[in-house]
Amino acid sequence: MRSSHKITASLHCLADAAANIVLTKFRTNISFDNKCPYHYDPVTCADRDAEKALFRIIQSQYPDDGFIGEEYGEQNKAADYVWVVDPIDGTRAFIQGLPTWGILIGLLYHGQPIAGMMCQPYTRERFWSDGQKSYFCGPTGYVSTLTTRSSELTEAQMSTTDPYLFKDFREKVIFETLRRKVRVCRFGSDCYSYSLIAAGQIDVVLETGLQIYDIAALIPIIEKAGGCVTSWSGEPIHTGGQILACGDPKLHELIIDLLNAL
User: Fold this and answer.
1) Which of 146, 262, 253 is nearest to 204 (CA)?
2) How far is CA 109 from CA 72, 99, 121, 178, 240, in A?
3) Is-above-0.90 flag for pTM?
4) What homologous superfamily does CATH list for 4-143?
5) Domain 153-260 architecture
6) Is the pLDDT of residue 35 over 90?
7) What are the start-end ranges of the E strands in 168-211?
Protein backbone atom coordinates (compact mmCIF):
# COMPACT_ATOMS: atom_id res chain seq x y z
CA MET A 1 0.00 0.00 0.00
CA ARG A 2 1.26 3.49 -0.78
CA SER A 3 2.73 5.59 1.98
CA SER A 4 0.76 8.48 3.43
CA HIS A 5 3.60 10.80 2.42
CA LYS A 6 3.36 9.76 -1.23
CA ILE A 7 -0.41 10.06 -1.21
CA THR A 8 -0.24 13.55 0.30
CA ALA A 9 2.29 14.71 -2.27
CA SER A 10 0.08 13.41 -5.08
CA LEU A 11 -3.05 15.09 -3.68
CA HIS A 12 -1.32 18.47 -3.50
CA CYS A 13 0.24 18.08 -6.94
CA LEU A 14 -3.15 17.35 -8.47
CA ALA A 15 -4.83 20.17 -6.54
CA ASP A 16 -2.19 22.60 -7.77
CA ALA A 17 -2.74 21.58 -11.38
CA ALA A 18 -6.53 21.89 -11.21
CA ALA A 19 -6.41 25.15 -9.25
CA ASN A 20 -4.14 26.77 -11.83
CA ILE A 21 -6.78 26.11 -14.47
CA VAL A 22 -10.08 26.83 -12.75
CA LEU A 23 -9.01 29.89 -10.78
CA THR A 24 -8.28 31.85 -13.97
CA LYS A 25 -11.92 31.32 -15.00
CA PHE A 26 -13.55 32.19 -11.67
CA ARG A 27 -15.57 35.41 -11.59
CA THR A 28 -15.23 35.88 -15.31
CA ASN A 29 -17.99 35.94 -17.88
CA ILE A 30 -17.58 32.23 -18.44
CA SER A 31 -19.98 30.39 -20.75
CA PHE A 32 -21.48 27.03 -19.88
CA ASP A 33 -23.42 24.14 -21.36
CA ASN A 34 -26.34 22.36 -19.73
CA LYS A 35 -25.58 18.64 -19.56
CA CYS A 36 -29.15 17.54 -18.87
CA PRO A 37 -32.28 18.36 -20.91
CA TYR A 38 -34.54 17.82 -17.88
CA HIS A 39 -32.96 20.11 -15.28
CA TYR A 40 -30.15 22.62 -14.80
CA ASP A 41 -26.80 20.79 -14.68
CA PRO A 42 -24.14 23.19 -15.98
CA VAL A 43 -20.59 22.42 -17.09
CA THR A 44 -17.89 24.91 -18.09
CA CYS A 45 -14.63 24.73 -19.97
CA ALA A 46 -12.93 25.04 -16.57
CA ASP A 47 -14.52 21.76 -15.44
CA ARG A 48 -13.49 19.98 -18.61
CA ASP A 49 -9.97 21.38 -18.92
CA ALA A 50 -9.17 20.67 -15.26
CA GLU A 51 -10.37 17.09 -15.46
CA LYS A 52 -8.29 16.48 -18.60
CA ALA A 53 -5.22 17.85 -16.82
CA LEU A 54 -5.79 15.65 -13.78
CA PHE A 55 -6.23 12.57 -15.96
CA ARG A 56 -2.97 13.29 -17.82
CA ILE A 57 -1.00 13.70 -14.59
CA ILE A 58 -2.40 10.52 -13.05
CA GLN A 59 -1.72 8.56 -16.21
CA SER A 60 1.85 9.88 -16.21
CA GLN A 61 2.57 9.19 -12.53
CA TYR A 62 0.42 6.09 -11.99
CA PRO A 63 -0.22 4.43 -15.36
CA ASP A 64 -1.78 1.34 -13.77
CA ASP A 65 -4.30 3.28 -11.69
CA GLY A 66 -7.95 3.71 -12.55
CA PHE A 67 -9.78 7.00 -12.97
CA ILE A 68 -13.36 8.17 -12.43
CA GLY A 69 -14.28 11.73 -13.35
CA GLU A 70 -17.54 13.65 -13.55
CA GLU A 71 -17.04 14.94 -17.08
CA TYR A 72 -15.34 12.11 -18.98
CA GLY A 73 -16.33 8.94 -17.17
CA GLU A 74 -14.30 5.92 -16.13
CA GLN A 75 -11.00 4.31 -17.07
CA ASN A 76 -9.74 1.02 -15.61
CA LYS A 77 -12.01 1.25 -12.57
CA ALA A 78 -11.16 -2.36 -11.57
CA ALA A 79 -7.58 -1.32 -10.71
CA ASP A 80 -6.32 -1.61 -7.14
CA TYR A 81 -6.03 2.18 -6.90
CA VAL A 82 -8.66 4.39 -8.51
CA TRP A 83 -8.65 8.21 -8.50
CA VAL A 84 -12.07 9.87 -8.27
CA VAL A 85 -12.22 13.53 -9.24
CA ASP A 86 -14.75 16.31 -9.52
CA PRO A 87 -12.83 19.26 -10.98
CA ILE A 88 -15.44 21.75 -9.76
CA ASP A 89 -17.92 20.47 -7.22
CA GLY A 90 -20.50 23.24 -7.15
CA THR A 91 -20.41 24.50 -10.73
CA ARG A 92 -23.57 26.52 -10.14
CA ALA A 93 -21.81 28.42 -7.35
CA PHE A 94 -18.71 28.77 -9.55
CA ILE A 95 -20.74 30.37 -12.33
CA GLN A 96 -22.40 32.76 -9.87
CA GLY A 97 -19.07 33.81 -8.35
CA LEU A 98 -19.75 32.23 -4.95
CA PRO A 99 -16.64 30.72 -3.28
CA THR A 100 -18.41 27.62 -1.96
CA TRP A 101 -17.28 25.31 -4.78
CA GLY A 102 -14.23 23.10 -4.51
CA ILE A 103 -11.89 20.74 -6.32
CA LEU A 104 -12.42 17.16 -5.14
CA ILE A 105 -9.74 14.50 -5.51
CA GLY A 106 -10.29 11.11 -3.90
CA LEU A 107 -8.33 7.87 -3.89
CA LEU A 108 -9.91 4.42 -3.64
CA TYR A 109 -8.02 1.28 -2.72
CA HIS A 110 -9.83 -1.95 -3.56
CA GLY A 111 -13.00 0.10 -3.91
CA GLN A 112 -12.77 1.88 -0.55
CA PRO A 113 -11.98 5.59 -0.10
CA ILE A 114 -8.65 5.91 1.72
CA ALA A 115 -7.61 9.52 1.06
CA GLY A 116 -9.03 12.75 -0.26
CA MET A 117 -8.58 16.45 -0.93
CA MET A 118 -10.99 19.38 -1.02
CA CYS A 119 -9.21 22.42 -2.44
CA GLN A 120 -10.82 25.87 -2.55
CA PRO A 121 -8.17 27.91 -4.40
CA TYR A 122 -9.94 31.27 -4.24
CA THR A 123 -9.98 31.30 -0.42
CA ARG A 124 -6.62 29.45 -0.41
CA GLU A 125 -7.97 26.62 1.74
CA ARG A 126 -7.28 22.91 1.59
CA PHE A 127 -8.80 20.11 3.64
CA TRP A 128 -7.30 16.67 3.12
CA SER A 129 -6.71 13.25 4.59
CA ASP A 130 -3.71 11.02 3.90
CA GLY A 131 -5.54 7.98 5.24
CA GLN A 132 -4.15 8.45 8.75
CA LYS A 133 -5.35 11.90 9.86
CA SER A 134 -7.18 14.93 8.46
CA TYR A 135 -5.51 18.29 7.95
CA PHE A 136 -6.21 21.88 6.98
CA CYS A 137 -4.16 24.71 5.57
CA GLY A 138 -5.31 28.19 4.63
CA PRO A 139 -4.90 31.90 5.34
CA THR A 140 -5.28 31.24 9.07
CA GLY A 141 -2.44 28.71 9.11
CA TYR A 142 -1.89 24.97 9.17
CA VAL A 143 -3.76 22.52 11.39
CA SER A 144 -2.06 19.15 11.69
CA THR A 145 -5.11 17.29 12.99
CA LEU A 146 -8.72 18.25 12.39
CA THR A 147 -11.26 17.22 14.99
CA THR A 148 -15.03 17.30 14.90
CA ARG A 149 -17.19 18.44 17.78
CA SER A 150 -19.95 16.86 19.80
CA SER A 151 -23.39 18.39 19.64
CA GLU A 152 -26.94 17.80 20.83
CA LEU A 153 -29.48 17.58 18.03
CA THR A 154 -31.24 20.75 19.18
CA GLU A 155 -27.92 22.62 19.10
CA ALA A 156 -26.72 21.19 15.80
CA GLN A 157 -25.66 23.28 12.83
CA MET A 158 -26.97 21.60 9.66
CA SER A 159 -26.35 22.15 5.96
CA THR A 160 -27.63 20.90 2.63
CA THR A 161 -26.87 22.15 -0.84
CA ASP A 162 -30.48 22.61 -2.01
CA PRO A 163 -33.73 21.69 -0.23
CA TYR A 164 -35.39 21.14 -3.61
CA LEU A 165 -33.16 18.13 -4.24
CA PHE A 166 -35.38 16.17 -1.85
CA LYS A 167 -37.99 15.13 -4.40
CA ASP A 168 -40.09 12.18 -3.28
CA PHE A 169 -42.47 12.30 -0.33
CA ARG A 170 -40.34 10.35 2.14
CA GLU A 171 -37.22 12.39 1.35
CA LYS A 172 -39.16 15.60 1.94
CA VAL A 173 -40.54 14.31 5.25
CA ILE A 174 -37.08 13.25 6.42
CA PHE A 175 -35.51 16.58 5.51
CA GLU A 176 -38.27 18.67 7.09
CA THR A 177 -38.30 16.56 10.25
CA LEU A 178 -34.58 16.94 10.74
CA ARG A 179 -34.56 20.62 9.77
CA ARG A 180 -37.16 21.37 12.46
CA LYS A 181 -35.13 19.60 15.16
CA VAL A 182 -31.73 21.24 14.60
CA ARG A 183 -30.84 24.76 15.65
CA VAL A 184 -30.27 26.05 12.11
CA CYS A 185 -30.05 24.77 8.54
CA ARG A 186 -28.11 26.62 5.85
CA PHE A 187 -28.12 26.00 2.11
CA GLY A 188 -25.83 26.17 -0.91
CA SER A 189 -22.41 25.06 0.33
CA ASP A 190 -21.81 21.96 -1.82
CA CYS A 191 -18.57 20.18 -0.81
CA TYR A 192 -17.53 23.04 1.44
CA SER A 193 -20.02 22.07 4.13
CA TYR A 194 -18.60 18.54 4.39
CA SER A 195 -15.12 19.99 4.93
CA LEU A 196 -16.48 22.21 7.68
CA ILE A 197 -17.78 19.12 9.46
CA ALA A 198 -14.17 17.97 9.70
CA ALA A 199 -13.22 21.43 10.98
CA GLY A 200 -15.86 21.32 13.72
CA GLN A 201 -17.93 24.18 12.30
CA ILE A 202 -20.92 22.21 10.97
CA ASP A 203 -22.50 19.20 12.67
CA VAL A 204 -24.78 17.61 10.08
CA VAL A 205 -25.04 17.41 6.29
CA LEU A 206 -28.06 15.66 4.78
CA GLU A 207 -28.19 15.21 0.99
CA THR A 208 -29.56 12.98 -1.74
CA GLY A 209 -28.77 12.23 -5.35
CA LEU A 210 -24.98 12.35 -4.96
CA GLN A 211 -22.60 10.55 -7.30
CA ILE A 212 -19.33 8.83 -6.40
CA TYR A 213 -17.27 11.84 -7.45
CA ASP A 214 -19.34 14.09 -5.13
CA ILE A 215 -18.47 12.18 -1.96
CA ALA A 216 -15.49 9.83 -2.32
CA ALA A 217 -12.86 12.48 -1.53
CA LEU A 218 -14.81 13.82 1.45
CA ILE A 219 -15.36 10.57 3.34
CA PRO A 220 -11.75 10.13 4.55
CA ILE A 221 -11.53 13.82 5.48
CA ILE A 222 -14.53 13.53 7.78
CA GLU A 223 -13.86 10.04 9.13
CA LYS A 224 -10.20 10.67 9.99
CA ALA A 225 -11.32 13.77 11.87
CA GLY A 226 -13.65 11.61 13.99
CA GLY A 227 -16.92 11.93 12.11
CA CYS A 228 -19.24 9.56 10.24
CA VAL A 229 -20.48 9.38 6.65
CA THR A 230 -23.11 6.78 5.74
CA SER A 231 -26.32 6.22 3.83
CA TRP A 232 -29.56 7.32 5.47
CA SER A 233 -29.97 3.76 6.76
CA GLY A 234 -26.53 3.82 8.36
CA GLU A 235 -24.74 1.64 5.82
CA PRO A 236 -21.21 2.40 4.59
CA ILE A 237 -21.39 4.33 1.35
CA HIS A 238 -19.03 5.90 -1.14
CA THR A 239 -20.80 5.51 -4.46
CA GLY A 240 -23.31 8.29 -3.78
CA GLY A 241 -27.03 8.33 -3.14
CA GLN A 242 -28.62 9.48 0.11
CA ILE A 243 -25.86 10.78 2.36
CA LEU A 244 -25.80 11.59 6.08
CA ALA A 245 -22.57 13.09 7.42
CA CYS A 246 -22.07 14.03 11.07
CA GLY A 247 -19.16 15.23 13.14
CA ASP A 248 -20.24 13.35 16.25
CA PRO A 249 -20.81 9.55 16.00
CA LYS A 250 -23.40 9.69 18.80
CA LEU A 251 -25.33 12.41 16.98
CA HIS A 252 -25.08 10.36 13.80
CA GLU A 253 -26.54 7.31 15.55
CA LEU A 254 -29.37 9.40 16.99
CA ILE A 255 -30.27 10.79 13.56
CA ILE A 256 -30.13 7.35 11.94
CA ASP A 257 -32.63 6.09 14.54
CA LEU A 258 -34.81 9.11 13.84
CA LEU A 259 -34.75 8.57 10.07
CA ASN A 260 -35.47 4.85 10.35
CA ALA A 261 -38.54 5.62 12.47
CA LEU A 262 -40.09 7.79 9.76
Assistant:
1) 253
2) 21, 31, 27, 34, 17
3) yes
4) Fructose-1,6-Bisphosphatase, subunit A, domain 1 (3.30.540.10)
5) 3-Layer(aba) Sandwich (3.40)
6) no
7) 184-187, 204-211
